[in-house]
User: What shape does this take?
Amino acid sequence: MLLVPESVKSAINLIISKNTLSSTYLFHGGLGSFSTKAAMYFGFCLFCNQQNFQGNCQACSNCKKIESEHFPDMITLPNSGTLKIDNIRTLQDRIKYGPSNSSKLLVIIPNCERFTTESSNAILKTLEEPPKNVIFILTTHSWKSVPLTIQSRSQTFFIPKTPIKNIKSYIEDKYNFNFNSYPLTYSLLNYLIQHKGVCPDSYKSFFSFSKLSSHERILYASSISKDKLFLKPLLYSWLEEIQNETPPNLSVSNHIISTIKSLNYNVNSQLQLENLFINHL
Assistant: This one.
């Protein structure tokens, strides 16, 4: 959990180890902070069978299920798109019976400024009278956009920016990737993460991407296709990797360049990426 600042980890560890849990938390911080990662850390500490309060132990069954997003008592709503009233009604139906296998049920709502007026009113009623043993963590990069009624019913956590050296280490460890050989890639990612709020989990090096199956490539195209701010820097970073190969693959480079140019126009980004990912890379 390199992306969660040590001060935040310590505060979360203390809350869980002392069992001084609130029903609702609001994790907030500016761009370059990883409030949803902090919420995930909270979940690992809360449910880890080892009870070492150090996040993902990577050994127990609960941590493995959380990592694979198959843990029944930890629900994370989608982190993009508007949070509509139907999303909240579905959530309310799911949580009204409380946890299924654990003593608590954790609900993470990323980017909670996305509530509509209807969905905000609906979730507010739930926060006012939360089901027994259910904990909510709402996250946001835009504190002022969260309704005051929700702020007032939440214990707030400020999540500071994560040092860029931690982000660098996180990506290098995750993908076995050395940024020292790719200064352009490092600069682009630094800018996007620190100033535009791009999550480093969206990034894949060309080397790690090349190992994906066709199905996994289509899923990756779908997950990043709407974020044109991220797409071009990603593809430029792949060009840098390819140019460092001996010899560089000019055909692949040309296809990537062609796709970058197409993104300047009103095209279907997902179709462009799927064509590139499946037919040319």
Summary: Residues 228-243 form the longest helix (16 residues). The first strand starts at residue 24 and ends at 28. The domain at 6-158 is CATH 3.40.50.300 (Rossmann fold). Residues 214 and 278 are 6 Å apart (CA to CA).
